[in-house]
């Protein structure tokens, strides 16, 4: 038994962890007991925890072929490995979440999205096929258009064990991003700016949800892959290096998350961004993965761990819904350092998270007060027709998840296909999926 | 340096990590194991990631009389040979069944020593090469919990030491690798202390570094050098009463 958790370190659970290094290992595990597959443990909550059997897929990390940007790889390969291998050759993932340490299987299971969702969609957009092992040990190759494909992308590993997949990468001329930063002073200004920049390949905003004088201030970061012509003459287009990660050995003292300090921190962040507003060339790692530079930033929150809240709101209700969410967060003064706002494009698949509109993500120290606040945020989200991201969730009640009619359909499909007996996680049990 | 690297016992977790480290440094890789065709995916991985040439070779450490032909059948005499052959066995089974114990001893000592002897002689004739033996800290002192495996590794460690001494003047270098706990299939189901447990990738990087810098004996992680120094120096009257 090992005591493991998700990236938020809440909840922790004693799980029997079995490592898979081959398809045979997976078949044996599927036959042995109900299970959930686990990639690199980057889902925040309990999506990849099963006390009875948690199947560690990081031992299946082989890249099987690559030609003209088309990669076949096992589920345990990390996005970081893919980037380090292929970016020097001029290739980059079509879609990347905010961490490069996600496994390929995890990216597929959560159907992760990036800063380009409004144009390119979620991870599924680059997936040609997925091999999924079902409850009987049989392997099915699911392709776009297949029901199994549509349930697996976003299905949180509950349709079977994702073994390997074929994905497409995009060509890039350099490893740099041409970034434009805009400093904005209110939510409505920010939403207007998002609306004006729909043709920007990448966009994301950091927005202040504290109760301080900077409430609603935001930095909108727009980006596109830089061309060779964008670079100063002596820069090399590809100089891909593994940066040393700064370790976070201990939890930060709790006072860091109290109101005054947070307000100051958010203010400093915004003023610094505002001073540097304008155009800059940023390397891929700093642009896409600023938090990966700290090896275990999840430990910043200390022993008790932390909770993520991420919801999506439909376009027509976004302005009022976001304002209400942000006001409620500010009043609660629970403290949230990272508040990320981003535009979503069209919805696809049977159970994926994104819907056309906006998504807001924040984290809170795990505490009673945070849980109370989050349940208020649940209500606001639902009242505005929104939904929640299962990769971040650690504590939603079943009723909240089931407010999304797709959840009931997912559960019914699982039951009918004999999946609910074999593939379960603490999350699937909590949410009745 | 970018000559071919031969990995013996290529199906192990340490071998996978070591082969990646050397492939990343640009070496063609020769993977040798029983039923080598099951390593097709590993070969594809090395080719895909690092663009190096990879060949597969059937090799059985326990069939001693096949070793000479095996070495002669390689596409080229390797520049570096890394022996990751080994089997821990179950100590309780090794105690109860002397035949099982003999199998562990042959897998960890007799077989590896035999194939390395063939390679060493050919490298000596050529006047260059590096031999890396993956032994174990278990060989540093016999302990009740795994002395059969440990005794075989002790033999292998002594063999590597002697080989290094013999070939030092002949242009052939020998590296002894003493891993402690490494998170591989060998450790599945075992609880081991975090600071003493290395990831296979750490061992891969350490072996590459040891070959490039011509180190003699390395411990992974290096804390194990200290741990084993302490364990080796506990007086026998005390040691026999411990349960290590």
Describe this entry's structure for a reader.
The complex is a heterodimer of chains A (433) and B (244). Chain A has 433 residues and is α+β, with helices and mostly antiparallel strands. Chain A has a domain at 176-395: Alpha-Beta Plaits (2-Layer Sandwich), CATH 3.30.70.2520. Chain A is built from 13 helices and 19 strands. Chain A has helices spanning 23-32, 79-86, 104-109, 117-120, 147-152, 187-196, 259-275, 284-288, 318-332, 368-383, 398-402, 405-416, 426-431, and strands spanning 2-5, 12-15, 17-19, 36-38, 54-56, 63-67, 70-74, 91-93, 127-133, 139-142, 161-171, 176-184, 202-207, 218-225, 278-283, 306-314, 339-344, 357-365, 387-388. Chain A has an 8-stranded antiparallel beta sheet with strand order 15-12-14-13-17-18-16-19. In chain A, strands 6, 7, 8, 9, 10 and 11 form a 6-stranded antiparallel beta sheet that branches. Chain A has a 3-stranded parallel beta sheet with strand order 3-5-4, covered by helices on one side. The longest helix of chain A is centred in the middle third of the chain and has 17 residues, at 259-275. Chain B has 244 residues and is of the alpha/beta class. Chain B has one domain (5-239): NAD(P)-binding Rossmann-like Domain (Rossmann fold). Chain B contains 9 helices and 9 strands. Chain B has helices at residues 13-24, 40-50, 67-72, 91-96, 98-126, 147-167, 200-212, 223-233, 236-239; strands spanning 5-8, 29-33, 54-58, 80-83, 129-134, 172-179, 181-182, 197-198, 217-220. In chain B, the strands form 2 sheets. Chain B has a 7-stranded parallel beta sheet, sandwiched between helices. A two-stranded parallel ribbon of chain B has the order 7-8. The longest helix of chain B has 29 residues, at 98-126. Chain B is globular, with a radius of gyration of 17 Å. Chain B starts with a strand and ends in a 5-residue tail after the last helix. The chains are: A alpha+beta (433), B alpha/beta (244). Chain A binds chain B through residues 2, 18-19, 21, 59, 62-66, 71, 74, 81, 85, and chain B through 13, 41-42, 44-45, 48-49, 185, 188, 191.
């Amino acid at each position: 038994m090992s005591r493991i958790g998700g990236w938020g370190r809440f909840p922790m659970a004693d799980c029997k962890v079995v490592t898979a290094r081959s398809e045979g290992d997976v078949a044996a595990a599927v036959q042995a007991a109900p299970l959930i597959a686990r990639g690199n443990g980057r889902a925040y909550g309990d999506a990849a925890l099963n006390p009875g059997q948690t199947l560690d897929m990081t031992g299946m990390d082989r890249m099987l072929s690559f030609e003209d940007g088309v990669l076949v790889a096992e589920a345990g390969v990390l996005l970081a490995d893919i980037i380090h291998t292929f970016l020097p050759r001029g290739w980059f993932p079509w879609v990347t979440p905010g961490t490069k340490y996600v496994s390929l299987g995890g990216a597929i299971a959560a159907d992760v999205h990036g800063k380009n969702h409004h144009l390119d969609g979620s991870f599924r957009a680059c997936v040609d096929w997925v091999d999924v092992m079902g409850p009987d040990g049989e392997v099915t190759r699911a392709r776009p258009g297949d029901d199994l494909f549509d349930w697996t992308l976003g299905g949180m590993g509950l349709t079977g064990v994702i073994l390997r997949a074929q994905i497409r990468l995009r060509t890039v001329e350099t490893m740099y991003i041409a970034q434009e930063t805009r400093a904005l002073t209110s939510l409505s200004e920010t939403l207007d700016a998002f609306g004006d920049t729909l043709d920007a390949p990448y966009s994301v905003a950091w927005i202040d949800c504290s109760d301080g004088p900077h409430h609603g201030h935001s930095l909108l970061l727009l980006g596109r892959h830089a061309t060779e012509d964008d670079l100063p003459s002596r820069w090399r287009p590809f100089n891909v290096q593994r940066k040393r990660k700064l370790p976070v050995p201990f939890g930060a003292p709790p006072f860091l998350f109290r109101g005054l300090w947070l307000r100051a921190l958010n203010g400093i962040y915004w003023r610094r961004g505002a001073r540097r507003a304008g155009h800059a060339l940023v390397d891929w790692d700093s642009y896409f993965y600023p938090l990966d530079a700290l090896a275990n930033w999840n430990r910043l929150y200390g022993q008790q761990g932390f909770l993520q809240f991420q919801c999506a709101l439909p376009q027509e209700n976004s302005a009022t819904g976001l304002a209400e969410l942000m006001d409620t967060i500010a009043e609660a003064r629970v403290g949230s350092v990272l508040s990320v706002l981003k535009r979503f494009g069209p919805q696809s698949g049977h159970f994926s998270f994104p819907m056309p509109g906006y998504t807001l993500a924040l984290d809170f120290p795990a505490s009673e007060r945070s849980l109370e606040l989050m349940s208020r945020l649940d209500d606001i989200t639902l009242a505005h027709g929104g939904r929640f991201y299962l990769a971040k969730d650690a504590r939603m009640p079943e009723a909240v998840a089931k407010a999304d009619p797709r959840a009931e359909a997912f559960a019914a499909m699982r039951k009918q296909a004999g999946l609910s007996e074999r593939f379960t996680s603490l999350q699937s049990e909590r949410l009745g999926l | 340096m970018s000559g071919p690297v031969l990995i013996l016992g290529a199906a192990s977790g340490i071998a996978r990590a070591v082969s990646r480290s050397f492939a990343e440094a640009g070496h063609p890789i020769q993977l040798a194991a029983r039923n080598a065709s099951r390593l097709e995916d590993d070969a594809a991985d090395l080719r895909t990631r690092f663009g190096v040439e990879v060949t597969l070779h059937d090799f059985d450490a326990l069939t001693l009389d096949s070793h000479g032909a095996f070495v002669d059948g390689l596409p080229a005499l390797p520049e570096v040979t890394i022996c990751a052959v080994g089997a821990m066995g179950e100590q309780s089974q090794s105690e109860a069944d002397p035949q099982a114990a003999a199998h562990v001893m042959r897998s960890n000592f007799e077989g590896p020593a035999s194939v390395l002897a063939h390679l060493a002689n050919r490298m000596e004739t050529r006047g260059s090469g590096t031999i890396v033996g993956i032994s174990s800290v278990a060989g540093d002192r016999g302990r009740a919990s795994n002395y059969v495996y440990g005794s075989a590794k002790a033999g292998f460690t002594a063999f590597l030491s002697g080989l290094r001494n013999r070939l030092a003047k002949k242009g052939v270098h020998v590296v002894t690798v003493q891993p402690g706990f490494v998170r591989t299939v060998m450790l599945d189901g075992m609880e081991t202390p975090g600071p003493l447990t290395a990831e296979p990738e750490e061992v891969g990087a350490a072996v590459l570094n040891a070959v490039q810098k011509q180190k003699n004996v390395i411990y992974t992680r290096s804390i194990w050098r200290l741990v084993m120094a302490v364990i080796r120096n506990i007086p026998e009257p005390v040691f026999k009463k411990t349960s290590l």
